[in-house]
Amino acid sequence: MLVRNVAQFAARYPGVTFHGVYSGKLDNGGETLTLSHPLGAKVLSVTYDDLAPWPSPRTVSGFPSFR
Predict the structure, then answer these.
(1) Do the Cβ atoms of 44 and 35 come closer than 8 Å?
(2) Are 50 and 30 in contact (CB under 8 A)?
(3) The predicted structure's pLDDT at residue 67
(4) What whole-number distance in Å separates Cα of residue 7 and Cα of residue 11?
(5) In 10 A of CB 24, how many CB atoms?
(6) Residue 22: which residues within 8 A CB-CB, separation 6 or more?
(7) What does the alpha-carbon distance between residue 58 and residue 51 come to, in Å, rounded to a whole number?
(8) 0.90 surpassed by pTM
């Protein structure tokens, strides 16, 4: 897990380990994010965009799509 603000993360999630600081920015026009295992295997990949259609909570099984 990467965090943007170490102090805020530690205050909100005490004792939770993170592995680095993310200083980049996500593209407002959309892009693909990929979580990879240290040995190189792809664990999860998700593409997002700012265009419709948006997923409904019923179509995303097991993961909350919005709060």
Answers:
(1) yes
(2) yes
(3) 47
(4) 6
(5) 7
(6) 2, 3, 4
(7) 19
(8) no
